[in-house]
Amino acid sequence: QVQLVESGGGxxxxxxxxxxxxxxxxxxxxxxxxxxxxxAPGKGLEWVAVIWSDGNxxxxxxxxxxxxxxSRDTSKNTVYLQMNSLGAEDTAVYYCARGSGYRYxxxxxxxQGTLVTVSS
Amino acid sequence: xxxxxxxxxxxxxSPGERATxxxxxSQSVTSYLAWYQQKxxxxxxxxxxxxxxxxxxxxxxxxxxxxxxxFTLTISTLEPEDFAVYYCQQRNNWPPEYTxxxxxxxxxx
Lengths: 120, 109
What we know:
By secondary structure, chain A is mostly beta strands. Chain A has strands spanning about 5, 10, 20-25, 35-40, 45-50, 60, 70-75, 80-85, 90-100, 105-110, 115-120. Chain A has no helices and 11 strands.
């Protein structure tokens, strides 16, 4: 049974940093891509970043390039999202999701999400 | 950047009726289109991938069609648990970007 569990969310001041974790059970990250998708309060879904199964290919939403970094620890079967220089526009529930299909193009398993609130 | 436009924004129907949701891409995505259902307070759930393939465990009343720029999600006979928000999503070629439509809220009439 595939399960993804996010953690690390919370309230953070503008300009500060936060690191989210996505721990997996029932699947091996090295065989799949893993995405981060966010949803601002009352808004739609927005893809944020992906790390491919090779661990080397990483892609980002334009608005987070240079501020966010996705990485993984295969020994812990965990993917991370390091977020720097946070602004109010980054306030959202952050979900991790497994990517499947060609270039991990759809998201077939999702975590429950972790809320990040950027506020002074 | 490929933009996905969903219509209508809100669809009001009764249980037992047929629902037709539309997703239009600003340029061709061939068949790389997926549909998700999201209920309040829950994570999204994959319904359809590659335009017309049902995901594991998805009831047969859900079907997807289309290719290129125009796609449709059809729910043949609405059940009470189907009232939710639905999103389409595409993956473009290179560099990889994965974008969602703005969503269609399916509400009880």
